[in-house]
Amino acid sequence: MTFYNRYQNGETQDVYNDIEKLGEKAFSPDYYPDVEKVLIETFERVKFNLDIIYRELKTIGYVFWKNGTGNDDALIEPSEDTWQLLATLEKSIKTVGKLPLSLKMFYKIVGACNFAWNYRENENIIWEMADPIQIAPLSYCVSEVTDEYWLEEMNEYIEDEEYGSAFLELSADDLHKDNVSGGPPYSLQLTQTQSVDGIFLNEPNNTTFINYLRICFESCGFPGMQNQRDQSFQKFFNKVKPQLKKI
To answer: In angstroms, rounded to a whole number, what is the distance separating the alpha carbons of residues 142 and 169?
Structure first.
């Protein structure tokens, strides 16, 4: 049975465990078409889940950050220049690492998301320390890596025994999302070899990017609420969780 068929049959986490064991073989002609189908299905489900969560948050009056036109900045569709931006991103980082396939698929299919509460508009955060899902837009990553000091900084991190690799900053940590001074941003590790997925650094679960998304959806986009008992969140959770797809 193919990875894709197993994934469709519900073996979502086991499939990714087996793909990870392949290492760079996952990109060989024997495996890549099947692996790509799994990734496409995964991020179509991610997009579906984010849409479900967003609609329910709108219903309960959640206060999102807004863009320059005054519209919600919670979900950003992939732009027409996604391919060009990805090419620029990969070219800019090639001396310090490669972009995991998972993040490329996220930007091609999902775009970006930010379910952080807009504390500037309303300082009364509905669910404190909820650590809402947030993945920076591709354009932000490109601006990050094309900064004149980025490569120099990343080379210093590579030589540092504590870090040992370059990374892309993708999300504020749980404290900064609540306007509290916190730690380093959640970041995707860049490795020198091709990879299907990558380690999501600084995030509390010490896991991969795809598994981070999986954990987020287990708590309807708010992994910080996993062990909290809040009646309003429980009501939201009970309505949303049955609608979400496994990734």
So the answer is: 11
Give the per-residue SS3 of 191-209: ECCCCCCCEEECCCCCEEH
199 forms bridges with which residues in the sheet? 208
Tally Cβ neighbours within 10 Å of residue 111.
18
Distance of CA 241 to the CA centre of its chain: 19
Predicted TM-score of the model (pTM): 0.96
- The owner of tokens 């910080």 is 224
The domain locations on the chain are 3-243
* SS3 state at 22: helix
User: Torsion-angle region of residue 70: left (phi > 0), alpha (psi -120 to 50) or beta?
Assistant: left
Residue 67 has pLDDT above 90, yes or no: no
Among 63, 76, 56, 81, smallest CA distance to 134 is for 76
Tell me which residue of 185, 155, 154 sits closest to 170, measured CA to CA: 185
